[in-house]
User: Fold this.
Amino acid sequence: MTTDPETLRIIAFPGAPNLPVFAAIEEGFFEDQGLSVEIELTPSSIYQAEQVAAGAFDMALTAFDNVVAYSEGQGAAGPDVDPQYVVVMGATQLELSFVVSPDVESFDDLKGRTIALDAKATGFAFVLTDMLQRAGLTESDTEYVAVGATPQRWQSVQAGDHAGTLTIEPFTTLATRAGFGVLQKSTEIYDAYQGGIVAANRGFAEQRPEVVCGFIRAYLTALDWVQDKTNRETAAAHLQKHMPAIKPQAVEPVMNSLLDPKSGLTPRGEILRDGMAQVLDLRSRFGPADAPLTEIDRYLDLSHYQLVLDRADA
Assistant:
C-alpha cells in the first residue's frame, strides 16, 4: 500500500540560493522522503512573515535577520505579526552587492538620491547603512524606499526610479551585464555574514518533526548533488527552469558565485556563528534594540538537523 506524500509548504525569496530546493524537486529527493513540496516566491519579507504567521506556509527560506527581528518584536510587518520563526539549518553566506545606476561612480554621487530596499528596518538595510557610513555619508544624504524583494528592487533601479539597491545572484550578474555598476559587496567588508537560513514555524517544527527532518535530508542530498561537478550542467538547467530570467550567458557567473562558500551555498547547510554574530551586531547598531543582541542560540533549534546528521553518520 502506497502512502500519500506529506505536503510541505515553503515560501522563499527569489534567487539562485534556492537551487538545492529546485534540484530536490526535479531530482525526486523530496519524493524519496515522502514529501510533496510546494514552494512560493515571496514579493517581500513582510508578505512572507504575514503568510507564515497566518499558517499558509510551514517553512521559509529567509534571511537570518528576519528571524531575529520577529523574535525580538521588531519585524517589518509590525508587532501584531509573529511568524514564530526558528532556524533549523543554515543555507548561504549570501554576498550582497550594492548595484547602482550607470551614472553613479562613487558613494558621493548618491547624495540626494533614493535607494530601493525590501523594507526599511531589515538586515539588508543595515548592511547598506553600514556601507554608506563607512563611505562618509550620513542618514540625511539618501532616502530609503521600501520596494520589495530583489526582482522588484532591481527592476526599479533598471527603470531609473531609484539610484541603487542591494542584490543577490542572479540579479547582480543581470545588472552588471546590463551596464549597471557595483559600488561595494558585503564580502569586501565582512569576513562572515549569515544571509540565508532555513526557518520553520516553531509550532510546526514541534508538531511535525518528521517532516522537518525529511526536508533537511532531502535538502542536504540535493546540496551534495548540486556541488558535485558532474551534475553542474543539469543543476544549471534546473536553475534556469525555475528562474527563466537567467539568460544562458549569465549562467556560468551565477553558478560560480553560488557554489563558492564565500558568496553562496554553505557546505552541509551549517550555520555560520561568526556570520550570525555580524548580523546581530548590525541590528544592535542600526536597529531599534534597547540593548546589544548577542545570544545566537535563542533563535535556533538545530535538533532536527543534528538528528539527521547523527543518523547519516551511524
Remarks:
- DSSP finds 13 helices and ten strands in the chain.
- The chain has two domains: 6-94+193-313, 97-188.
- Residues 97-188 form a domain with the D-Maltodextrin-Binding Protein; domain 2 fold (CATH 3.40.190.10).
- The chain has a mean pLDDT of 95.
